[in-house]
């Protein structure tokens, strides 16, 4: 993958450099050649000495034809060489025929001497009797004509400082040829989008933040992007320099410094005696001029400090570094330099297919018949440009090849099979690049950790892997190291570990290279190998981790039986994953495991010897356990997962698990008993009772609360799931002081959630179809993540909003908006928030931020005329008058009348209202949580009351402005009226003012919504996304500062990136997962429709429905929530029950 100049494919060079070697080869011409090459101008220079009388070499003539331009350096003895004169004549012929650009440079000669053939440029025919002489009369005549012609061209006469003069030549060539470096079809597609943020950073002159690092895994295009940025922007700096592959420089770091300084100064003979001196000279060069520097592939902070030195200084220069370290910004903290981190985005699906197609077929699209195979191969590469180039080139095929199309399709199919065989069969070129990061890991424990994760733990919860591997491999620190070195990533929600498929294959190849015999490997993840090992039963001295999933064998559908002795003979086994496996025999010598995942376990009770003291995690989900009762204490156990143990009735002896952190009893539908000692588990952090109706019935009496609960919960509990249970209320005796996460997804009978703890950060009440109200111990809204899809009756979320039907409000509630009561039975089409989906509304009052507002749809009368100040546009201004009775101002009523010009269904953002007190410098911009979408040619009135009386004084200038999408909505008129209070109302208002306190309402604490001094943006939904910052500047002025400090946003709404931060989010390789969803199917036709809709989703490979048990299973590279959203389009209640990552696929 390379970036080339904009020259078409017929040109091999940008410039042909013609000169007389004996005068300038080792001085001016050499410096010019170096300068041209440094800026990426492809330059041809003949490195052989010109011999008098010889014919031009064929490659010289060819190189002239294959160049876009020529630079001819005329020195004193130029015309003494027939070779040089022949080159001149060929160059001018190329100019006449093909618009070949020619730049004459006069080095120590007078152009008039060249034009008139005087002095050293006077040439004559020679009759010396030597056969084959070049100095014939005909040749001399055409050379003279050529000298005259070239001297008449606009050239450059060497003068002044040579360095400056050479820089002028380079700029001239750059400008004349229009050399703009960009991605060609052989380069990284989408380079401009990736360069956009970095180009913005380059133009931003922040003297204390001069460094930007481009980070990413091996082969992700870091070097290519850096070079593109360099060659696209270097002309905007005083000087520039680029060093590729720091570790391969012949003189080490001293050589790097020399190369940087020579590029910056143009002095090719610069001498540096040591690295300290080099750092001082670099510092001076960076301070004196605005310099652009690129240092490629630096992965050691000591090397960085050696090159640039440890001294702090302010500079307008820019330094770009490519590295595999994400935490490179910490390297600069000691010198107080800011470092922006750009985490390079891998290619998306379309870009990947385009790049692969170029290298495989020579075009942007696959050849006919290859598209499906090309898509699969591109998907395997996971957006890694190096892999796409290498694999595409290895399968290169054109229509003219002798291979038949069917033959090549078979070749492609064979290659894909090899890549998907779990063999770790990765191309050597890719392996070598990726393995550099692995080999550079500082500790052997980090390497072992990486291999364990790659073979067994991809897709697992981060916290679980940390607990399982901490003792042996210091996993918390190790995982952070792997993340920082781009060898590992977190899932989008930050909960699971992910690894690029190529990195996983690289790791597995390392393991497979340990031996040709799987029994001598350290890890065995390939199910066919595990099967043979257990069936053979010879054991192993080296295997530490083994995975066997019988469901991967299509020909075997029942449980497969193995002897426990096969595992007992694996003395070093620590990590064991079994699925669909039945074990028989004694467990007396069973391995002392750290991790046991035995899904579909055939045991009814726990036998002695199976669970040993070293166990950290047990997963015996989907098994036949009827009673979980430990025969001995497990002092190391932190995770116990008995999910979907449908026969499980009781869980006993929990006091024997003193360090238990996670207890998962999800969908244990028969469970009725959990021992009381659960309250003594002082380390228990996560408890999952989802889908345990019998247990919950014993714990909560549906419709009431038991006087004596069966057991209490430990006060250490911070995460609790009660999803898919039929209780109506949460008991008030449950006192959880540190609860941060509560999942009540799919509790259809739940009606209210009163006084939730103020510590709560995440709440999920999706598809609680009876839920009406949520309140908190603190009236201030503190949630950071909140999901409430499918809550068709929810009307109040304390601290967020409240919807109340006008019919339920009396005159005191409506105050000065009592005329709206006449429209209480009118229908309104409310949209905007998920709270409106699947519901119909009569006229509602919306309470939010202390503002009361309502929409009246289809209004016919002249209600708008009752307002004091009116405008026929979307804005008005007035000064606050003196009221005759000197009554106190309560606030401001604001209304506007709008409509849609047509009935087309268009995307729109809702109206925003801005109220400004220009005298006091205070302004609020507000968008209600819901808004009314008008029908064509129908008027809608929005009426609101703003309680801003305390901020309005006589004489204040007030502005009202309505902002909306003028393409889809039209404001017909707007109006405003001051609202005054009588004595009784004043007392009530004073009481309300005292209650506001720290509430996020006008008159309370709106500090989290302040975007500029005195300016408040009252909206939690990021309607404008990438345009949010520019919109805020339009609303509040240039000094507005947009942050993400307003906590929760609807999960479907992206959050804009910070202005001064360079953000690029990794596009991680999606792993195949199996999703189990709970769905209530009504009919066979409905089942088929839903199945067909899901099958059409991108990434879905198979769909199976089980109507009788209300289950739907989907397999593919998919997002479970996307699948759930697809089902909800059929107005069905759905819950994602489980999803399992197939890291072994």
UniProtKB/TrEMBL annotation:
Stored SMART domains: TIR
Gene Ontology molecular function: ADP binding
Domain of life per record: Eukaryota
Domain TIR, chain residue ranges per copy: 11-177
Record has Zinc as a keyword: no
GO terms for biological process, alphabetical: defense response; signal transduction
PROSITE patterns xrefs: TIR
Parts of the chain that traverse the membrane: none
UniProt entry keywords in alphabetical sequence: Leucine-rich repeat, NAD, Plant defense, Repeat
PANTHER family hit by this protein: LEUCINE-RICH REPEAT-CONTAINING PROTEIN (PTHR11017), TIR DOMAIN, P-LOOP CONTAINING NUCLEOSIDE TRIPHOSPHATE HYDROLASE (PTHR11017:SF492)
Protein name, as recorded: TIR domain-containing protein
Organism in which the protein naturally occurs: Tagetes erecta
